[in-house]
Design a protein that fits this description.
108 residues, mainly alpha
Length: 108
């Protein structure tokens, strides 16, 4: 019984560290996106806008279908669609990674 609790504790610790690394990777991904945008702007003279809306359609489900083809709740659709279009992908990645890290660091 004692061995199982130690193994579970070690597994939890490993899981939390893995999630912490995922948070770090999200932060670095956001910074890399900004770097890509700056590089492309300096080279081509055009700013590449990357928003949450650009990646939200990767995983199809009912919400994504509704977001692409609204048939009800049209006001809510305008708010959500506008927010996804307005929020930069880099900022959301950095904020999500920071939030994950702050919560995980409290548990470690």
């Amino acid at each position: 019984m004692h061995f199982d609790s130690i193994a579970l504790f070690e597994f939890n610790k490993l899981f939390l560290r893995t999630v912490n690394v995922a948070g770090i990777l999200l932060i670095f991904a956001g910074i890399a996106l900004i770097g890509f945008q700056v590089f492309f702007y300096l080279k081509q003279g055009e700013w590449v806008e990357l928003s949450l809306l650009d990646i939200v359609f990767i995983a199809p489900n009912k919400f994504i279908f509704w977001l692409d083809h609204p048939s009800s709740w049209l006001g809510l659709h305008k708010i959500i669609y506008g927010a996804f279009k307005f929020i930069p992908l880099s900022l959301s990645s950095i904020l999500l990674g920071s939030w994950i890290r702050s919560d995980i660091n409290k548990m470690l």
